[in-house]
Amino acid sequence: MNLPNSITLIRIFSIPLLIWVLSSARFSSVNGEKELLASALFIAASMTTMGILLDPLADKLLIAAAFVVLVQLNPSLVPAWVAIVVIGREFLVSGLRSIAASEGFTIEASELGKFKMVVQIVSVVAVILDHRWKEWPVYRYYVFPIHWIALAAIWFMVCVSLVSAIDYFVAFWSKIDRRVVKRQRRAFILSRRRKPVPVPPQADRDVATST
Fold it and tell me: Is residue 161 within 8 Å of residue 116, measured between CB atoms?
């Protein structure tokens, strides 16, 4: 098994581990060990393929599992409709990719889609930390507003997810539309080439034979 496949399997197997850490009572939230461990695990699983490898399947599974758990862990920041929007967007993109593959073309991941993944990582980690800390003291009277960062990140993530879905759909539709036009044009040309030679009426053929 090569390195990319090994990394993919490790990332997929880390998903149930993340769910177990966030859902299990073995880890306490008093000192924040559950939140810190889950955040570290999620970041490690998310950042493994950032840059040199592209692993959309593991990304989608990881994000979907994280938001399903966050609906239960921190419903004030992640209501059910947010998880539906995020997961629905992933299903839409996967479906469009399947249709594109069946038509013989691919749609490359856009910069907006990559940025969406980064925003999702930030929002998930912020929501996990918000479950234990609303703010972190930084220096004397200064605090790090985790709650407001998590709230802003979630809303920004929803907007970016919707915009990237629309962008992906537009790119898909433009390619499929051009492909349909080319297919119709090719069929028209072939039909013109195969146009049958007109056969003269029977009377004309008889006259021509007699002469």
Answer: yes
- Tell me, rounded to whole angstroms, the distance of Cα 153 from its chain centroid: 18
Residue 32: what are its φ and ψ, rounded to 5°?
80, 15
Q: Can you name the CATH fold of 3-196? A: Four Helix Bundle (Hemerythrin (Met), subunit A) (1.20.120)
Q: Name the nearest CA neighbour of 127 among 106, 154, 100.
A: 154
Per-residue tens of pLDDT for the chain, all 211 residues = 666 677 778 888 888 888 888 887 777 777 788 888 999 999 888 876 544 444 677 788 888 999 999 998 889 999 999 999 999 988 888 888 888 777 777 777 677 877 888 899 999 999 999 988 888 877 777 788 889 999 999 999 999 999 988 888 888 888 776 766 666 566 556 566 665 555 555 555 554 454 5
- Rounded to 5 degrees, φ, ψ at 96 are -65, -35
Domain ranges of the chain: 3-196
Q: Where are the alpha helices (DSSP H) in the chain?
A: 3-23, 33-47, 56-73, 80-102, 111-130, 146-193, 202-210
